[in-house]
# Entry
Amino acid sequence: MAEFEFTNMVMIHDKSTGRVLVQERIKSWKGIAFPGGHVENGESIYDSAVREVFEETGFTVRNLIPCGFMQWYNNKTNDRYFVFFYKTHDFSGELMENSEEGRNFWVNPEDLYKLNTPGNFKEYLPIFFGDRFTEGFCSWNEETEYDMTKPNPYGIVYR
# Structure
């Protein structure tokens, strides 16, 4: 039977500086990305995003705006992995510079493409920053080979 996994990712934008909060992840999916994590049983996707941000950054976020999602479909097992994307300007609390997930810090959005990000994080940015796409879809399996010299190496279909 196919398995479904639900996760979230939140872009926190500081209007006063124009910067966004990132996390240099040291556990799984190593590299620089937005905070987020897994949806727990009985938890809404929205509530999971609020909880994950607080656990990883110390910030309480409010008024999360859904900006889309990414769906990874394993065409051999029929498993699906969803990442739900949110953004907000509404946050409070004191930033934990270091958490068990990694170091948190602010960057200019245009610098995200230059940073050492995990796997496919840069492919998520058109959904976070644009208003043209709300979904990314990728069909793959463990044997899939990617041409990392191409602009869209994973063959993600944006809609």
Q: What stands out?
A: Residues 24 and 61 are 19 Å apart (CA to CA). The chain has one domain: 4-158.
